[in-house]
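Here is one chain, start to finish.
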Amino acid sequence: MPLAYWIHDLDPFLLRFNENFGIRWYGLAYLAGFVAAGLMLRRYHRAGRSPLDGNSVLDLMTALIAGVLLGGRLGYFLLYQPAVFRHDPLMLVRVWEGGMASHGGFAGVVVALWWFTRKRAAGLLQIADLVVTVAPLGLFFGRLANFINGELWGLTTRVPWAVIFQHTGGGTLPRHPSQLYEAGLEGLLLFAFMQWRFWRGTAARTQPGRIAGEFLIAYALLRATGELFREPDAGLILGLSRGTFYSLFLIAAGAALIVLAVRRGSKTEA
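Its structure:
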């Protein structure tokens, strides 16, 4: 085995108080994602591109934090570990043991947006368009935390930048650092695309819901691309990894949102 392969030895704790309790990079990643998203939403308001002032942004972020954490946690067990959840339902509250699913987090965000907009002048689709343009920041930090934790590693490979995750269950063979691939795809690339669509296009003003639909489709395609290099973390469905299979529903939902937005936009112009 070439000596160039790095053996993953990163500590998941920034500060450890005992063996299982401390300040984890994973928790800090979520905090960084929410803070960055909140700052971006405040910038939108200052630029005249959002109806949400500072107080409204704080209310929205509170709802989103609850939606992401509850949806992501519940989604992980229902979509990836249903047998574990049935055997030990209390796993749901033992958050320090890890386990979040982005698809479940999306569902939680939808519920949070419904709750936030139900008594406001701004519609759900209008706010959703704003939220999806900053969501990739959280995905980026989350994938970096996955790498630090040494979890969700990739398939075995011989590429020069391969990593050995033997301390976190990946065995002694070099593997793709798929967490970093996904950080670049679902995080940086998707963020750049969303920002380009938001600032350079008129869809956010004339076709509410279209940018949200484009986000769902783009995320699904980028997620499926990343899954090509990732070791499946649960059983396959119809020959597809679960991440890819569940992303098919995001493509369908995204397409439906775009059709709805275009039709509503056409009626408004008429």
